[in-house]
Amino acid sequence: MSENKLVEEPRVLAGPQFNSGNFAVAEAALFAGLHGYFGYPITPSTTIMERLASRLPYVEKPGAFLQAEDEIASITAVIGCSWTRNKAMTATSGPGFSLMQEGIGLATFTETPLVVVNVMRGGPSTGLPTFPAQQELMQAHFGSHGDYMVPTFAPNNVQECFDLTIEAFNASEALRTPVFVLTDQILSTLKERFLIPKKENIELVNRSSPDNPHITWKGETISSNLVLPMNCFGEESKAFATGLSHDDTGHVDLSADTYELLMNRLKEKILTYQHLFPKPEKYLIDDADTVVVAYGSTARSAKYAVNSARKKGIKAGLYRLRTIWPFPKDDIIQSLRGKRIIVVEMSSGQLIWPVERYLKQDVEHIGYLRGSVPPPSLIRKKIEGVN
Amino acid sequence: MVTIKFDLLGHNNEVDLTSRMLPHIWCSGCSLGTNVQSFIRGAISAGLNLDREVVMVSGIGCTGRASGYIEADGFHTTHGRAIAFATGVKLGNPNLEVVVFSGDGDLFAIGGNHFIHAARRKEDLTVICTNNSTYGLTGGQASPTTFENTYTPTTIEKNDKPFDLVNLALGAGAAFVARYTSAHYKILPRIIKEALQTKGMAFIDLISGCPAIYGKKNGYPTGEIMVQNFLESSVDIVPDDEGTYLLPENTAVHFDQGKGYTKIPVGIFRRGEKK
């Protein structure tokens, strides 16, 4: 009826692509069944929003797209959209991620499935737009007030931007929780070859409902005692939720027992299924004396440094986190305790905190703050012990 | 002494109230009881099935609790975010009738930005503001509609000029704008019905009172005096020839410390296209 509209495109592109990390995130969201995108432009995340603006309303089974008045409205509208039993997301960068913390707290407490992609740039405040940094690792865990944990995944190449965004949607639906994807400015514009798999080869999870309380994810049945079946708006069962402490029906209950049970369950549901989250990449660590711990773009440089060191006969390895929170503490203790550890990150010291805490040993650190990935030579020299 | 057996008392429209959440937290004399009652009657007269078709969204404050008392789907959001949440719901499922039921502090201080933008974008929402000119739940502090020269614990000497919510909504582009008081409980269901049936954003500035805190200091110490004050000071508006242009001095609410409300222009200030 409207001649100006784009021709309806297929929702899922097929086969090999050559494009950026932000492109891959947007296409993965469409693949996963995204229905609502609400966002506010901020570099370097904006191209995710632009891609979805030109795709989401025009593809088969179209969804809703809105440029909201700010990031607070964006995240809150994402929560609203999710409560209509639709997959919803937003993407942002540092300053916007700060504004979204209020909504993220609400989403964790009301157990709302949604995905937030944070394309990290240098902070604090307006900081260093738009150069890469990794300074929101702690904010992803502790940014909103109160105790909570949001599963946080960190890709380091364009293929993983695609894969981990799908994982993020699946985790959010299976566990009724917000999930973060932490990428950075380099991944946002970096173009690589990546493959969009055949639809039938990828598992997509949809949240439970009163009619279908037992859902499975990666072959495992998700306990309906830990993840309550979700009533959504306009359905037969009443759906109600509040940011106040509440009982299982979602209504206000400020009693000590209810609050304690609720808080414990919210923590437990994430920790119980953390073995289903993306596993760390362990590169040459078995015989390594020195292991570099890194994530995201930094790990690409670190891998190059490890290879260079190996060529010189130094037994170096790389431990790359793909799930940041919950921190894979058992695995890191088992794999790395007793080895010489170098944490490399584009931050003056965030990843080093959990690594030190769980390994309980001295950890060396490169906290690179120059708006780019630390060069491989810098990491190699550290591995060699030359400063 | 007579003991009142509250559990044996019935409520009007009881089936549409979440009985297990009662008694509510509101003080005696508060406008919110009649406002909720009027809303339920309005929604029913609009032919809506509260249980299946309506989503009640509210923010924080005394009014924010209303979503938990009405037997419809609902969400009690963070402070000021009711409209932002409602926007997501409406875009997620346009078949739902999404109602924002919140207070003046929530909608126009912390949530002011969301209001003007939702009005500008013509979001298909019904926004009912219980405008009692105060932050009741936190103890009577000043809100964006607190009147000049009235006492609040946070504005001891003077207050700034309040928002004229009708004028604000008209300027921002709301499709339907009305103002009545909580004492107009006979007219309100009809107004609410019309708001629910309007395409685009419908806004009702529902002048309400907080006799327990704000009113006690500023001229209407009880609910009874408040209702009398509302009825005596309400003036029906007379639209100009085009029926579209209203001067701010004709839409503003006037208030005198010690006397309470002195002029409340009431009526429908703008009518929009029906759904």
Would you mind describing this structure in some detail?
The complex is a heterodimer of chains A (387) and B (275). Chain A has 387 residues and is of the alpha/beta class. Chain A has two domains: 1-278, Rossmann fold, CATH 3.40.50; 281-384, Rossmann fold (3-Layer(aba) Sandwich), CATH 3.40.50.920. Helices cover 35% and strands 22% of the residues of chain A. Chain A is built from twelve helices and 18 strands. Chain A has helices at residues 21-32, 46-55, 71-82, 94-109, 137-142, 158-175, 185-189, 256-272, 297-311, 329-336, 352-359, 376-384; strands at 15-20, 34-39, 64-67, 87-92, 114-122, 128-132, 152-153, 178-184, 191-196, 216-217, 220-221, 240-242, 281-283, 290-294, 316-320, 323-325, 340-345, 364-367. In chain A, strands 2, 3, 4, 5, 6, 7, 8 and 16 form an eight-stranded mixed sheet that branches. Chain A has a five-stranded mixed sheet with strand order 13-15-14-17-18, covered by helices on one side. Chain B has one domain (6-270): Thiamin diphosphate (ThDP)-binding fold, Pyr/PP domains (Rossmann fold, 3-Layer(aba) Sandwich). The N and C termini of chain B lie far apart (54 Å). In chain B, strands 1, 2, 3, 4, 7, 8, 9, 10 and 11 form a nine-stranded mixed sheet that branches. Chain B has helices spanning 32-45, 50-53, 66-69, 82-92, 104-110, 112-120, 165-172, 188-196, 211-218, 223-233, 248-251; strands at 54-58, 73-76, 97-103, 126-131, 134-135, 141-142, 176-181, 202-207, 234-236, 254-256, 260-270. The radius of gyration of chain B is 18 Å and the shape is globular. In chain B, helix 1 (32-45) crosses helix 8 and helix 5 (104-110) crosses helix 6. By secondary structure, chain B is α/β, with parallel strands linked by helices. The A-B interface holds A 35-36, 38, 64, 66, 68-70, 72-74, 76-84, 86, 88, 102-103, 105-106, 110, 233-234, 236, 238-244, 251-252 and B 18, 20-21, 51-53, 55, 57, 65, 67-68, 71-78, 81, 84-93, 95-96, 113-114, 117.
